[in-house]
Amino acid sequence: SLVPALQHLFPQSSDPAPNHIKAIASINYRLSPYPNHPTHPSSPDDESRNARWPDHVRDVREGILHVLARKEFVANIGESLAKYEAQPVSNDIILVGHSVGATIAFALALNLDGYDERLEIKAVVGVEGVYDFTAMRDAHLEYRSVYDEICEGAFGPESEGGWEKGNIVRALERGERDFAVPPVVVLGHSKEDELVEPAQSEMMERALRRKGWKRWELGEEGGRDKEIAVVDLHGSHDEIWEQGEQLAKCICLAVEMCARRDGLHRPSS
Questions:
Q1: pLDDT at position 184, please?
Q2: Residues 6+ positions from 237 with CB-CB distance below 8 Å
Q3: Rounded to 5 degrees, what are φ and ψ at 130?
Q4: Residue 71: what pLDDT?
Q5: For residue range 59-84, what is the model confidence (pLDDT) as tens digits?
Q6: Residues 189/127, Cβ–Cβ less than 8 Å
Q7: In Å, how far from its chain's centre is CA 182?
Q8: CA Rg, the chain, in Å?
């Protein structure tokens, strides 16, 4: 949930539009089957719990298109757009995802759901993200049976190559769609994450840097062709979003990087 981060994204202040954020849309997606879940097992009759990859990515794409098609949504942010002399909202999207949500965000940016038409994504923020499911499973042998069931439910048997469909690192290495990755990327990870190892974000950073993304450091003006920022977070896997502040920190950094690239400045009053 993004709710805990909202108070940090929109603090009580005189600033009418903190951090250049015009609007936020929280988009849900269907889950894959997990019939052996210890407390909430899925049922074959539940359409919301029987999605197969890339259904998850398509759900998010359709959610974004639905939001952009709502005239009242676009109208409500019109004043904010005018204040910043910004581009149309359809070209001003930052995708944010936590855990597998980060997987989906990058998969959408890379068009791994099979759509030919690209969404105009300005930045992607991946927090505690999973970018290689096989590597994650192998790094947590104590959860092997759980991760096997979750991944097979989403991608099919590993032996049939299904897990590679959601392998973001491999998609970048193949180079087929790396052109679609936005110019601004923020990766946040905690060394205390007990479910997704920091090596996931490390290998994602390496893959992006091999493709030309340059490391952005705090205090730099930015504006290079492709930039990636890495944020060290603290806490367990779910604490990152439950506490809100660190998730908001990553989002604000991405917004600030985009704003500097566009030469935008906050209004003085």
A1: 95
A2: 99, 128, 190, 193, 194, 195, 196
A3: -110, 120
A4: 60
A5: 999 999 988 887 656 555 555 444 43
A6: yes
A7: 12
A8: 19
Q: pTM to 2 decimals? A: 0.88
Token pair listed for 142:
């104590």
Burial 244-257 (b: 16+ CB within 10 A, else e): bebbbbbbbbbbbb
Inter-residue contact 257 to 185 (CB < 8 Å): no
Q: Which amino acid is at 72?
A: E
Cα separation, 159 vs 109, whole angstroms = 27
Rounded Cα–Cα distance for residues 245 and 261 (Å): 24
Residue 23's Cβ-side half-sphere holds a number of Cα atoms within 13 Å equal to: 20
> DSSP labels for the chain?
--HHHHHHHS-SSS-SSGGG---------PPPP-TT-SSS---TT-GGG---TTHHHHHHHHHHHHHHH-HHHHHHTHHHHHHHTPPPGGG-EEEEEETHHHHHHHHHHTTTTS-SSPP-EEEEEEES--S-HHHHHHH-GGGHHHHHHHHHHHH--GGGTGGGGG-HHHHHHHTSSGGGS-SEEEEEEETT-SSS-THHHHHHHHHHHHTTPEEP-TT-----SSEEEEEEE-S-TTHHHHH-HHHHHHHHHHHHHHHHHHT------
114-125 residue pLDDT tens: 887 778 899 999
Closest to 129 in 3D by CA, of 36, 193, 215, 217? 193
